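step: validate -> pass
step: tokenize input -> pass
step: predict -> running
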Amino acid sequence: YLMQLGGTVDTWILSHPHSDHVGALMEIIKSKRVKIERILHVHLEKAWVMANEPTAYDLVSEYNALIQTTEAIKIAVEKGDVFGLGAGVEMHVLGGLNETITTNAVNNSSLVFSVRSSSKSVLFLGDLGSAGGDILLENGNLEDIKVDYVQMAHHGQAGVNKEFYNATQADFALWPTPKWLWENRADGKGYNSGNFKTFAVRQWMEELAIEKNFVSGLDGTVQID
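step: predict -> pass
step: emit ->
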């Protein structure tokens, strides 16, 4: 797909180093077929990962080493950073490394950012958990998280709380969610048979009067015009 679009990526944005968020990039770097100009990410030190989420240590170690092999500009972003993504389009970093959160540690250090133009705004939460969301509500500027579109945290289950979504005042929800998770199916079993919290979050969206849920596992690739 990237080769069909010219084989060059201007900016690759990574939320956090879990396999479903960095795995594709790692394989692409190894293939050496795609040219990447710039990588924006939250840098996690291996020692911190070992202390707080040891199951992620090997992957984080491999990821940290691998991206150093690329010629891409690598930027460890911090809260308050602003990046241009194109004519009239800006990325505003609202959150990142949360060293004080030691439960669900890597997810709660997800890169949180908005992308804004004159016509629309989108908030990306990565896999941010409830603790990370609460910190943003307590310590951030609430105006910064008010957007038209919000990406559902942690694929729409076990992410931020309802109060956070309410504070975004979003009209549309972007679900990076496969069909089985949207339907809460465990191991291919029946509809809403799993232990995921997807249906509770879907109910929140109804209560918050979200106009439309865009679900990747149902809608495929969606272009926001």
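step: describe -> The chain has a mean pLDDT of 96.
step: cleanup -> pass
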